[in-house]
Amino acid sequence: MRNPELVGVQKTASPVLKAKALDNRLPDPILGDKYAEQAMRHLDPDYDKRRFGTSQMGLAAVVRAKAHDDWARSYLADHPDAVVLHLGCGLDARVYRIDPPATVDWYDLDYPAITELRRQFLPPREHYTLIGSSVTDLTWLDRIPRGRPVLMIAEGLVPYLTETDVRRLLTSIIDAFPAGRIQFDTVPVWAWRTSKWDPTLRKYGAQFRCGFDDPAALAEWHPRLEFVDEAPMNDSPVLTAKAPAEVRRMFRLLNLLPGMKRSTRIVRFWF
């Protein structure tokens, strides 16, 4: 079967998946995601023949995923009746890594071309639904059961939306559910404004569309929304413990530069 064509930001799904697949080939992986490796092998049978896995970009994607996984497991342990909205899911196998109980209804949402690839590469499971839609077309919310706690996960999504779209998304979810957690990652304003010159983003035809120097301030968007905390990223203990020496040195140097230590923020809120 011919794979659907990915355009723009959709193309970033492949390198992120590749990082997670290569992580699984390490003797002591961070994620240990066998499904990422299987899916990447279908997408590119020779993906592991080229150097990538120890790069800054690759390791950052894996560390970011680990932080989101840990938060999600914690929330679902306390809320086994939750609805999970995994938005901009890409080719990530989070639902298989976390393996939530049957009492959780999990929804993965991304563009139709991405969800078609997921159907080809990843197995079906009960209490799991794929939705092929733009995140910003909020009619998809009509398909989600209400009256239960919700966990919204948006890994590598928010910077590609406009601030207006982010605000509509968050406030619509808060208004739709009685309680929940929201977790996502952001970039600062300087990273957003300079993203048009970022060589990695340009390679995939993508560009950031918003940034926040103080993402905790987003709690002001809705009276029920409260900031909880943020997870370490560029100075993550996992990164320090697992990264090859040359990558650790790179991150130590980057963290000395103003604005770089927290250039990616993984944040969570509750309502």
Descriptive notes:
- The protein has 271 residues and is of the alpha/beta class.
- The protein has a single domain, classed as Rossmann fold (3-Layer(aba) Sandwich), CATH 3.40.50.150.
- Helices cover 38% and strands 15% of the residues.
- The chain is built from 10 helices and 7 strands.
- It has helices spanning 13-24, 34-43, 56-78, 94-98, 112-121, 163-176, 189-194, 199-203, 237-242, 245-256; strands at 83-87, 105-110, 128-132, 150-154, 180-186, 226-231, 265-270.
- Strands 3-2-1-4-5-7-6 form a 7-stranded mixed beta sheet, sandwiched between helices.
- Helix 1 (13-24) crosses helix 3.
- The radius of gyration is 18 Å and the shape is globular.
- The mean pLDDT is 88.
Compose a concise summary of this entry.
Keywords: Methyltransferase, Transferase. This protein is α/β, with parallel strands linked by helices and 271 residues long. It contains 10 helices and 7 strands.
What keyword list fits this structure?
transferase; Class I SAM-dependent methyltransferase; globular; alpha/beta; seven-stranded mixed beta sheet; Ppm1/Ppm2/Tcmp; 15% strand; 271 residues; Rossmann fold
**CATH architecture designation:** 3-Layer(aba) Sandwich
Biggest sheet layout: 7 strands, mixed
Can you count the helices?
A: 10
* Helix/strand/pairing category: alpha/beta
Q: Can you give the helix content as a percent range?
A: 25-40%
- List the domain count as a whole number: 1
| pLDDT averaged residue by residue | 88
pLDDT < 50 runs, ≥5 residues: none
**In what order do the strands lie side by side in the largest sheet?**
3-2-1-4-5-7-6
What oligomeric state do these chains adopt?
single chain
CATH homologous superfamily designation: Vaccinia Virus protein VP39
Beta-strand segment tally:
7
Form type: globular
Order of helix and strand elements from N to C terminus: HHHEHEHEEHEHHEHHE
Span of the ends, CA to CA? 44 Å
Question: What radius of gyration results from the CA coordinates?
Answer: 18 Å
- Percentage beta strand: 5-15%
Protein name: Class I SAM-dependent methyltransferase
GO molecular function, one term: methyltransferase activity
InterPro entries: Ppm1/Ppm2/Tcmp, SAM-dependent_MTases_sf, TcmP-like
Keywords: Methyltransferase, Transferase
